[in-house]
Amino acid sequence: MNSDGDVLSTVSSQKPTAGDDIQLTLNERIQRVAQKALLSGMQHARSYHDQNGNALRANAGAVVVMDAHTGGVVAMVSTPTYNPLWYERGLTKAQSAYLNNGKIGAINNRATQLAYTPGSTFKPITGLAAVKEGYASLGGSYDCVGTYTHPGDTSGAQFVNWTTADTGYMSIATALEKSCDTVFDAFGSQFYFTYANNPLGANADPLQADLHQWGFEAPTGIDLPSETTGLVPDPAWASTAKDGYGKPLFPYGWVPGGDILTMIGSGYVQVTPLQLARAYGAIANGGHLCTPHVVDRVIAPDGSEAKKIGGDCAQTVPYNADELSYIRGALRSVVQGGTATCAFQGFPFSQVAVAGKTGTAERANKQDTSWFASMVGPNPDKPDYVIVTMVEQGGFGGQTAAPITRQVIDGLYPKIGDASSPSCITPDR
Prior knowledge:
Blueprint: E1 21-24, H1 28-45, E2 60-67, E3 73-79, H2 85-89, H3 93-99, H4 123-132, E4 142-144, E5 147-148, E6 159-160, E7 168-170, H5 172-178, H6 181-197, H7 206-212, H8 235-238, H9 256-263, H10 273-285, E8 288-289, E9 295-299, E10 305-308, E11 315-316, H11 321-335, E12 353-363, E13 366-377, E14 385-392, H12 397-412
Antiparallel strand pairs: 1-9, 2-3, 2-14, 4-7, 5-6, 8-11, 9-10, 12-13, 13-14
């Protein structure tokens, strides 16, 4: 080629060849359903008020829909978000300012890159841990008191249930249905006593070891970048943890409240919506922790399958079929008589079974985070999907997150629902 761009001669040539195509697990229709449900649910939540009379901000959130048996992500929504075409066309000053505004956080995928206190959605998992360690049994009965005090504690610290009334003895299933904090508080005390007696060595606390078996405080391994790990607080972490002013968070070392608050998904424990979805997937599928993925397979130019992705469910949790079935049954009662009843009024449970847990997590200097973690499918013993919904500053779990999930389920099974969004105010923790 000369300086004028004219081709003088051809030395050699090679015809282009088609590359492989990637097929995703994402379902465009369900993605749109989840996005619409989250945005409309957040807008609806702003008509509610918190305990102080302030309108809920409901300023951010995420929804994850995952195949319970393969880990394939069917839908993943995070808001606030941005249009990727901005980068193709070049960012304007306004777009750049928006993306760099940490208070908005539009550049973060809230399903995988930010971790939150999970509230009562943690109770099915910590309840199973209490059974595993012998502090509870599926046939046992436990006192749901209005306020709980750690045995022997003279500091005056009290742990308050969402109602101050003593509601009597109940099973673990009923404690999940009614979301009784103090039943789980007492289990937390027993975990602490095991640590305090130190049979397992320095800094050993069985609660944290049990939670790690569910994949918490570790990346899920999803094929997306910059996944965060969350936090499972333990004595070793407490020995170095400091507040925003550089002062120790635990000046007296690990205290009973560390285990007690972790039991109810409060305190310093943090998980991502995807980590929680993976754990609930194990409850749904009989104990397998599937690696989440958004790539399904690689297709060669001739249409053949060059590579199959996903389906890695070899890791398991140490619970038997009866224990997991018991929890699934308890979570079905949450939507039929428990804290999520309002959101599922009129739902045809005879056609599609729903099991889930509401969560309302306190957050420093913020309104409560609203959660609903669930599993759904025609076969109650083999749910098809796991759905986790989280709304920052969205109030009670049964108030905001559960109705959003109801709309997603109606979209998953369009012949059985009307995508209704009931108005619900359900106090729970």
